[in-house]
Amino acid sequence: MKKQQVKQIILKILGFIGKTLEYILPILLILLAWYFAGKDGDIRIKQAKFPTLAALGRKVGKLFESGKLLQNTWISLRRVLTGYVIAAAAGVSLGVIIGLSKHLERITHLFIQFIKPIPPIAWIPMVILMFGIGESGKVFLIFLGGFFIILINVMDGIRQTDPKLLEVSKVMETPPLKNIFRVIIPSAVPNIFTGLRTGLSSCWMCVVAAELVSSNSGLGFMISDARNYGDMAEVIVGMITIGIIGKIMDSLLHFAEKRIIRWV
């Protein structure tokens, strides 16, 4: 192997290590600060007793051993996936249809702009009165959390199709249906995935809000129940679990986005 090739490999490895460190540096700094803050005992912030890293690790072990963490994680994940899939299917399909029609855009504009600013958490009292505290109410809240974000991003993506592409398609006399699936929708893919990824984050916020208020299971309930007993470690474990799962799901969407954009 030539020296130049060896040099390039070393530079690539160093570049990879450097990028990885950039990603994890903030987390490492927080963990280090957390470790040294609790080195001499409990950490107190005003009246709250903040757990040390060792105490947090023990709490994670207990929650895994009892099955409490896995059970509540699965319940919340199932709710999010159900509401999110419905929101994504409805948001993408309606977003494409409305984005393609100026008449539908005018018809729906006032309704969408009126409903959109209302945060999903404001719907909780009405949802409880309509659905009770069962699963359907939580799924509906999660659906609301993702639907309008996805819908608006898809509509914007359809409307912002490059006029030059449309002009070329018109000159080539491309059939309308083929024009939609070969030109307009592919050009809207970045906006569609922006909506899907942002909507996913909103769905997680909604499931936690719903479980905090009207549930006896899920990560939101686990956090609320731990707060009632003053168990800060369990509260933090629940929050970290939500963050990890949310990051994994977002990374999967980002991976799919890169592959699909390359394909279209």
Q: Could you tell me how far the N terminus lies from the C terminus, measured between alpha carbons in angstroms?
A: 38 Å
Mean pLDDT: 84
Cα gyration radius (Å): 24 Å
Poorly predicted runs: none
Shape summary: flat
Question: What string, H for helix and E for strand, traces the elements in order?
Answer: HEEHHHHHHHHH
Helix content: over 70%
Can you characterise this structure?
It is a single chain. By secondary structure, the chain is mostly helical. The chain folds into 2 domains: 4-38; 50-263, Orthogonal Bundle (MetI-like fold), CATH 1.10.3720.10. It has helices spanning 3-37, 53-66, 68-100, 102-115, 124-131, 135-159, 163-171, 176-213, 219-228, 232-263; strands at residues 43-45, 48-50. A two-stranded antiparallel sheet has the order 1-2. The two termini are 38 Å apart.
What layout of secondary structure does this protein have?
Elements: H1 3-37, E1 43-45, E2 48-50, H2 53-66, H3 68-100, H4 102-115, H5 124-131, H6 135-159, H7 163-171, H8 176-213, H9 219-228, H10 232-263
Antiparallel strand pairs: 1-2
Observed structural traits:
two-stranded antiparallel ribbon; single chain; mainly alpha; MetI-like fold; 264 residues; 2 domains
How do you describe this structure in short?
The protein has 264 residues and is mainly α. The chain has 10 helices and 2 strands; from the N terminus they run αββααααααααα.
